[in-house]
Write a structure and sequence with these properties.
- By secondary structure, the chain is α/β, with parallel strands linked by helices.
- Strand 1 (2-6) and strand 2 form a beta hairpin.
- It has one domain (2-225): Alpha/Beta hydrolase fold, catalytic domain (Rossmann fold, 3-Layer(aba) Sandwich).
- Helix content is 38%, strand content 23%.
- The chain contains 7 helices and 8 strands.
Length: 227
């Protein structure tokens, strides 16, 4: 079911809801940097979780020009949560840059019952290849440009993993060459609630290689059912 939600700034958040009735929980899946809800791995994960009985919502952030607009992404996620009033509990699932946005939302959203991250980026410089260059350019621009400085300041003020007390499942691949597993380990260490860390063995950053999608889906399904 296609759904459009108004973001606070008037832009449209376009998404797809796969329902299971009756269901009091909704799993909201957020995409990562420079991809969309149509990403093959993301679509497969959503479809497989739906087949296992979960209500799933995937969407595109309203500002996808740079993929780095952290305040806008956080605002969009909160708008999506507010839209689905009939669901008593929300579970957030995100990878890469989306993991950072959901981690901020998870610090102060009463309806969010659990957070799940996969190959998450949490603002550190432990990166590889082209993404590391993008990060370094962003850090330079944050010293020179008002817009980028505002994003960096927002990150520093709002990313507080020590305040995340909801159950959190952190997954990361040992062979992720884009975002080092060290970022997820540091994030995991700071969490104060119930938590689980799952190491993937073969998956690349975008989960397109390594044939571990079933492992990811089964781990997520088991985690949710044990909450």
């Amino acid at each position: 079911m296609h759904i459009e939600i108004n973001s606070p700034d008037g832009n449209k958040i376009s998404g797809n809801l796969q329902k299971k009735e009756p269901n009091r929980q909704l799993l909201i899946i957020c995409h990562g940097y420079k991809i969309t809800q149509e990403h093959p791995a993301l679509k497969t994960i959503a479809q497989k979780l739906h087949k296992k009985g979960h209500a799933v919502f995937t969407f595109n952030f309203s500002d996808d020009k740079t993929g780095l607009n952290l305040p806008q992404q956080v605002s969009d996620i909160r708008a999506v949560i507010a839209h689905f009033k009939t669901y008593e509990e929300i579970i957030l699932l995100a990878g890469s840059f989306g993991a950072l946005s959901t981690a901020i939302v998870a610090t102060n959203s009463p309806k969010v019952k659990s957070l799940i991250t996969n190959n998450g980026f949490f603002g550190g410089g432990q990166l590889g290849g082209r993404v590391r260059r993008i990060y370094l350019v962003f850090r330079l621009l944050s010293l020179l440009n008002t817009r980028y400085r505002a994003i960096w300041t927002y990150y520093k003020e709002n990313f507080q993993p020590k305040k995340i007390t909801i159950p959190t499942l952190v997954m990361h691949s040992l062979v992720d060459k884009t975002v080092s597993i060290r970022q997820s380990r540091m994030f995991f260490s700071a969490l104060r609630g119930k938590k689980q860390f799952t190491e993937l063995q073969r998956a690349d950053h975008e989960l397109l290689k390594g044939n571990e999608l079933d492992t990811i889906v089964n781990t997520i399904d088991a985690w949710i059912r044990a909450l």
